[in-house]
Amino acid sequence: MEYEIQRNHYLEQLIKRKNNGLIKIVTGIRRCGKSFLLRTLFKRHLLESGVDESHIIEMAFDLFDYIDYRDPRVFYPWAKEQLKDEKTYYVLLDEVQMLDEFVSVLNGLADKKNCDIYVTGSNAKFLSRDIATEFGGRGDEIPMYPLSFSEFMTTYGGNRYDGWNEYITYGGIPLVVLAKTQEQKMAILEHLFKETYIRDIVKRNKLRNIEEMETLLDILSSAIGSLTNPNKLQKTFKSVNKSKITATTITKYIGYLEDAFLIEGANRYDIKGKFYIGTPLKYYFMDMGLRNSRINFRQMEVTHSMENVIYNELRMRGFRVDVGNLTIVENSKDKKAVKKQLEVDFICNKSSKKYYIQSSYMIDSAEKMTQEIRPLIKIGDSFKKIIITSHTPKPFYTDEGLLVMNVYDFLLNPDSLEL
To answer: Highest mean pLDDT range out of 140-144, 242-246, 355-359?
Structure first.
């Protein structure tokens, strides 16, 4: 039997939602493990819980064997034929966005009182829009990501420091993680980009100028953790590529990349004014291996890589994550009042919980510590403030009440923010 990576965090979410009357929709980038979660791990759970295999209806719409079933006039009658009695049937459908009129089909099945429905999908805009509207409140979304660092370490034979270097280089796509050599990992990442992600984007959006899209990907790959916007990107295109691409087209392309779960934008939030600023934003890659493959594994700045991994971890933990902007007024040397802009890397919100987090790869002096804690101290509210670095031996609190911890403790302990 091939090695299996357990995805207990997501499996538990599916189990908790069993028979809740909603359509469970697992969303995420292709090849992050959605199919394995649904059709192997969750199906196994059902069988071990006593569900008869005849009461599990499953289909993978991305496989050629089932291409005819993408027609709802073929699939829907077939699915209804499987309902032989009044007992609960568990419907497991993979890559459901490939099923034409899938919203109507799923709503139709959901009307059957003995159908408990679970689907996966790889198109954020397509699914999110329908979850919010056309499912009429029946959609229950479960975002899924490539392997977190803690999941990755369950497969890695070495120490956490070597594991960290591997993880920020090749990422957490399960197929890549399980590859034996660096050459294999790099080849798989390159192939995935060309034959899966780019091809999907081109086909889904009827894209003609593939070269522009790929150039945009390269630019964004080189600018993770940096504030940018379509107008700034347009100037880069013009100066570097002599391109006449418009900011409107760039905005559209960024939307395509976000829909494919390749990147995600973090909005800026004015902490004092309590409002969103709009552009520029920061864009982070859902997987560091995919990002690094775009730049041929060059330009491997650990500072920005760590920031990207922290962002992804916070999103995996269910936080809404923004970039904090803080305007302060200080006296200059000639005692004139001067406005200054400070940045807080992440503002994290989940229900009543709120955290401010700074990512600082290396704090090697008192001056550097002062620089890092300054924005956090200036905020002035009572929510928890945290600095994540690469080298602190163990978590500690500063005299100002700020929690400082290393990135390994943060990533490997799901309750690290509560220390």
So the answer is: 355-359
Q: What angle do CA 65, 71, 76 make, to 5 degrees?
A: 100
Query: Tens of pLDDT along 266-316?
Result: 999 999 889 999 889 999 999 999 999 999 898 778 999 999 999 999 999
Kindly list the distances between the CA atom of residue 392 and the CA atoms of 272, 296, 310, 407, in Å, as whole numbers in the listed order: 30, 31, 16, 9
- In 144-292, the DSSP E strands lie at 227-228, 263-270, 275-285
> How far, in Å, are 104, 112, 267 from residue 100 at the CA level?
9, 20, 33
Residues 6+ away with beta carbon under 8 Å from 165: none
> For 166-178, what is the mean pLDDT?
96
Region for 361 from its dihedrals, namely left if φ exceeds 0, alpha if ψ lies in -120 to 50, beta otherwise: alpha
**CB 280 within 8 Å of CB 235:** no
Measuring CA to CA, which residue among 142, 160, 158 is closest to residue 150?
160
Q: Which among 158, 164, 153, 220 is positioned nearest to 388, based on CA atoms?
A: 164
Pairing type for strands 115-121 and 89-94 reads: parallel
C-alpha to C-alpha distance for 147 and 127, rounded to whole angstroms:
22
The residue with greater pLDDT, 278 or 318, is 318
Structure tokens at 298: 């060059």
Q: In Å, what is the CA distance from 125 to each residue of 130, 257, 258, 314?
A: 8, 10, 8, 21
- Rounded to 5°, angle at Cα 15 from 10 and 17: 100
What whole-number distance in Å separates Cα of residue 342 and Cα of residue 224?
19
CB of 389 closer than 8 Å to CB of 406: yes
Confidence label for 4 from pLDDT (cuts 50, 70 and 90): confident
Q: Who contacts 338 (Cβ-Cβ below 8 Å, separation ≥6)?
A: 329, 330, 331, 332
Exposed e or buried b for every residue in 336-362, given b needs 16+ CB within 10 A?
Answer: eeeeeeeebbbbbeeeeeebbbbbbbe
Question: How far, in Å, CA of 193 to CA of 3, rounded?
Answer: 24
Q: Cα separation of 69 and 310, whole Å?
A: 40
How far apart (Å, rounded) are the C-alpha atoms in residues 154 and 137? 37
